[in-house]
């Protein structure tokens, strides 16, 4: 079996809030092989973005890793120094944010911003780094790339800015790219173009990709495997094909049923999951999904269901309902 690039084991993270410490992640375990694409899916507060920020060591002063480990190429990222983490973030793990405008500097040209990480981390001369920036912009399909190096972020459309972010993420040829809701602000056609581009370029580079999203439907075509999160825990994980064909956790089933289908009855109502996502500062007892689960039974309120294998490469955290 291939050596995993990233192994998250039993990760627990808490955050200090006005209402005391909340458990943002509770025993999260995930694995990612080199070249693989993992989609982490969940509603807000499910823990998907906190998982990404934990990998990057960007939990801020309020966040704290309480237990578990994040092994990346043999190093536990929860134990390395801040300087080492910065080095890893610059060279081996890249991050693409949801809103490129908040990550791009409005007063620097696009060329300067794409060339800087190449110049800084690959010790190239500035003209070499600038030329490479032009090649990268062409690679992410920005028309007239060489001419656009001198333009500023406000002269690019939302989709083109996200392409620039992808170019910046690829600049250091990272082993892992984490994209947090990279297409949420874009229309459906541009969404598909950006995700295809991201998937193809990471594949070409041999990098792994983690796609964080609230939209199970969007990632269907791009992920090799999917982890569904709820209330700070992974509730189901499987290969994308298996999960889409045969979801086995009631929450995943609910998410699947709420995706519009081309062959659905015209005029039929879309399914919704009753109730609200859980409040992390006041999680329900036992299975956090039990207040919304149509199959909840007595055992579900008494203890948390562990993530258990139910088929090859398919795990779920549920006491069962079939
Ligand atoms: Fe529903 Fe119980 Fe399974 Fe939770 S453990 S998803 S409440 S059946």
Radius of gyration: 21 Å
Distance between the terminal alpha carbons, to the nearest Å? Answer: 32 Å
Percentage of residues in DSSP E strands: 15-25%
CATH evolutionary superfamily of the largest domain: P-loop containing nucleotide triphosphate hydrolases
**How many domains make up the coordinates?**
2
Q: Provide a count of the helices.
A: 12
Second rung of CATH, namely the architecture of the largest domain: 3-Layer(aba) Sandwich
The main pleated sheet reads as: 8 strands, mixed
* CATH structural fold name of the largest domain: Rossmann fold
Can you list the strand order of the major beta sheet? 6-7-8-3-9-10-12-11
Mean pLDDT: 90
Q: What is this entry, summarized?
A:
The chain has 322 residues and is of the alpha/beta class.
Structure, described:
This protein has an 8-stranded mixed β-sheet, with helices on both faces. A 4-stranded antiparallel β-sheet has the order 2-1-4-5, with helices on one face. It has 12 helices and 12 strands. The protein has helices at 48-56, 82-91, 100-103, 110-121, 126-139, 145-148, 158-170, 188-205, 216-219, 240-245, 250-257, 299-302; strands spanning 4-17, 20-33, 37-41, 63-72, 75-76, 93-96, 176-180, 208-213, 225-230, 233-239, 308-311, 314-316. It is of the alpha/beta class. The protein starts with a strand and ends in a 6-residue tail after the last strand. The protein is globular. Helix 4 packs across helix 5 and helix 4 runs parallel beside helix 7. It has 2 domains: 6-92 and 174-316, P-loop containing nucleotide triphosphate hydrolases (Rossmann fold); 103-171, no CATH class. The structure holds iron/sulfur cluster (SF4). The site of iron/sulfur cluster has 12 residues, from loops. Iron/sulfur cluster binds at residues 250, 287, 289-290, 293, 295-296, 300, 305, 318-319, 321.
């Amino acid at each position: 079996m291939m050596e995993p690039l990233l192994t998250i084991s039993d990760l627990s993270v808490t955050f200090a809030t006005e209402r005391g410490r909340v458990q943002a992640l509770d025993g999260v375990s995930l694995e990612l092989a080199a070249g693989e694409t993992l989609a982490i899916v969940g509603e807000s507060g499910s823990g998907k973005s906190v998982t990404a920020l934990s990998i990057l060591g960007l939990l801020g002063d309020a966040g704290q890793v309480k237990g578990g480990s994040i092994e990346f190429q043999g190093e536990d990222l929860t134990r390395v120094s801040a300087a080492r983490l910065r080095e890893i973030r610059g060279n081996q793990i890249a991050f693409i944010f949801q809103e490129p405008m908040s990550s791009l500097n409005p007063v620097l040209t696009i060329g300067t911003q794409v060339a800087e990480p190449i110049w800084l981390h690959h010790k190239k001369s500035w003209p070499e780094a600038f030329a490479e920036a032009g090649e990268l912009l062409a690679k992410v399909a920005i028309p007239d790339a060489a001419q656009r190096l001198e333009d500023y972020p406000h002269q690019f459309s939302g989709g083109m800015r996200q392409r620039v972010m992808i170019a910046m993420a690829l600049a250091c040829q990272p082993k892992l790219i984490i994209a947090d809701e990279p297409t949420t602000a874009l229309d459906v056609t541009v969404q598909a173009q950006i995700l295809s581009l991201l998937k193809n370029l990471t594949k070409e580079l041999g990098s792994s990709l983690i796609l964080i999203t609230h939209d199970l439907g969007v990632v269907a075509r791009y992920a090799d495997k999917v982890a569904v999160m709820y209330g700070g825990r992974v509730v189901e994980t499987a290969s994308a094909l298996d999960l889409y064909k045969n979801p086995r956790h009631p929450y995943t089933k609910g998410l699947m049923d709420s995706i519009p289908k081309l062959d659905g009855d015209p005029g039929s109502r879309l399914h919704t999951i009753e109730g609200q996502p859980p409040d992390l500062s006041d999680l329900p007892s036992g299975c956090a999904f039990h207040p919304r689960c149509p199959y909840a039974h007595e055992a579900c309120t008494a203890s948390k269901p562990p993530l258990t294998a139910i088929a090859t490469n398919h795990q779920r955290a549920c006491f069962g309902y079939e």
